Amino acid sequence: MVLSNRHSTVSKHGCRSVTRKPAGRRRKSDGSVLVMVLWLLVLVGFLAGQYVAHNREKADIAQNAWTAFRQRQAVSSIIQLFSADAWPLADGTGMDGHWFRLFPDDIQLWARVDKESQRINLNTAPDGEIKQKTALMMGDNFQREADAVSDCILDWRDTDDLTRMHGAEEKDYKARGLNYRPANGPFNVMSELLLVMGVTPELFWGDPVELIATDLGRYYVQSGNGAQTQTPMTLSEGFTIYSTECKRISLLVPGSETGYLYTNIFMAKESGRLAVVDRLQFLGVAEAGFDRLIELESESRGLEARGKKRS
Fold this sequence. Notes:
Number of strands: 11
Number of helices: 8
Strand order of the largest sheet: 3-4-9-10-11
Mean pLDDT: 82
CATH architecture of the domain at 93-305: Orthogonal Bundle
C-alpha cells in the first residue's frame, strides 16, 4: 500500500513505522508562491499606473490641443472684427490705441489696435532718428549697446560694405559663424530685424505683460513739443517697416496657468480691402500672472470715468 506524502518502513522487530515529509520543505514552497504572488501584484500595479498615466497624458494633450484651437479661433475672430475701417465696438473701447480686454468665444484676451504712423520706419527714417529712438528705448545705462544695435541696423539696410564704428557687415557675420549676411537693402518683414547682429528676442519683444501694465497705468514722458506720448520699450514697438496707414492688431492670449500667446498682426489695404500682410507671434510666461492687469484696467477705467489721467 502506498501512502501519499509518507514513507513506510519496517523495523527489525517487525513493527511498521511511518515517517512524514519534513514540514520545513512545505513552508519553503508556500513562501515561494507568496513571493511570486507579491511580484505579480507589483507588476499589475505598475502596469495599471502606466495605463492611467498614459490616459492622463493623452487627455492633457487633447485638452491643450483644444485650448490652442480655441485660442486660434479667438485670434481669427479679432482679425475679422477689426478688418473694417469703421470701429466695431459700440462703446468706443480701445479707440484711443490703448490695451483693453475682450472675450471672443469666452476666451479672455488683451487687445490693442493702432496705426503704424506713431512708429519710426526702419526703411525710410534718417540714420540719426533711428539711433536716437534706439537710445531712448534702451535707456541711459545701455548707450554703448544702443549704439551697436543702431549701427548694425543701419549696416543691414545700406547698400555698401562699409562697417560703421559699432556696426557689422558680411565679414562680421561670418566671424560669428552665422550662415547669412546683411541684406544691404530694405527690411521686407518685421521678423527680419531679429537677424540683425545684436538684436535679441528680449530686445525685440520685451515683456508684453509689462508693456500692457505700463499702458494701463498710463505712465507718460514729455515729448519735445510738450505732448504726452508713451515711450516704447522694445524694438518691435518703436519701429515698423509698413506705411503709416497700416493697422497693427496686438493680442495677448492667456493660456493654461501663466503661459500666453503674444501676436502682432499687420493689416494693409489690398484691392480696396484690409488684408493681413505680416504676422509675428511667440509664446511666453507671465511670472506674476494676469491678475495685476485686471486690477490696473479697473483702476484706469475708474480714473477715466472721473475725468482724470495718471501722469
